[in-house]
Amino acid sequence: MFSAASSAAFTTSVPEQDAFFDNIRAHCGKAFEGQVVSGGREGDGFSDQRLVMHVRECGEDQIKIPFHVGDNHSRTWILTKTGAGVLLKHDHRHKDGSDDESTMYGGHTDHRGWANAQSFPADDYSKDLFTRLGFPQSNGNTWHMYIYPEVFTYQLTRDGRDFKVDFDLTKPVALPPVPWGYE
Questions:
Q1: Total domain count for the chain?
Q2: Span of 11-15, 127-131, 145-149, 171-175 with lowest mean pLDDT
Q3: Which residues pair with 147 in a beta bridge?
């Protein structure tokens, strides 16, 4: 049986990744409004909606950040310390809480990154999912997260695509509803 102290040894990452994790965890319980700053276009489902991130659940090894897009509460970013870095997964749910067909895609850090920035290239699970669902162009996805005292940035890049949302960390907003599939 593992104790909390012994299991911590399995989730230790490099100092830059620990600092990144802690920088986000410092905002636990707060929500922030954002806006698309690149890659948006009319009718894309993001640019014309209110965007809110909520640093909702913060454990020693995992942080869950719902990303609300207007009245759509289907998305949650999950950051997990793995012992070999940080894993980002995108949990997508239907209104009834069931898994969306396109869920749990993401990637794992492949270098130490920085205390304010980490990148997550698409993992094999994600590439298989994207190919099966008919959008293999997403196999080249890399997700990036940046956290500074005044702004949190979520960015998706790949050939021909650069989508970025900045969230203002200086002005917390009212907490959004519980994301779909959570209590």
A1: 1
A2: 11-15
A3: 152
